[in-house]
Amino acid sequence: MSRVGRGRGISGFPPLVFLAFLIILAGPGRVFAQQATGAIRGVVADKEGKPIPGVTLVLNSERLGIRDKGVVTDLAGNYKIAHLPPGDYKLKVSFPTFATYNLSVTVEAGRTVRQ
Q1: How many CB atoms lie within 10 A of CB 40?
Q2: Does 23 score more than 80 pLDDT?
Q3: Do the strands 112-114 and 101-107 form a parallel or antiparallel pair, or are they unpaired?
Q4: Which residue among 1, 11, 76, 104 is the one 20 to 30 A from 67 at the CA level?
Q5: What pLDDT, in 10s, does the model give residues 68-113?
Q6: Are 87 and 107 in contact (CB under 8 A)?
Q7: What residue ranges in the chain does DSSP mark as E strands?
Q8: Which helix (H) or strand (E) holds 21?
């Protein structure tokens, strides 16, 4: 008489044991990969605190070899630049009718810098 659901998977292990092993094996790599980078996010607003959509933000880091990584703010003035290696950056914020701002930003692994 055969037992249904008691079959053997790869390498003679029951399928659920093998699946659990794969999940455990793959899990730590994902966690480390997610923590190896950081992000910068914020809201661009005018002097009265009103959000400014369409502002260009350009990120550079000569030391890390990152040139002109940019985003544009959304309708609520929000922006996010993700998946950045840890290090020091220059952030240029520009909009045609406003002054251009240059900021220094330090990104840490696993963290989001709010500007």
Answers
A1: 23
A2: no
A3: unpaired
A4: 76
A5: 999 999 999 999 999 999 999 999 999 998 899 999 999 999 999 9
A6: yes
A7: 38-43, 56-61, 66-72, 78-84, 87-94, 101-107, 112-114
A8: helix 15-35
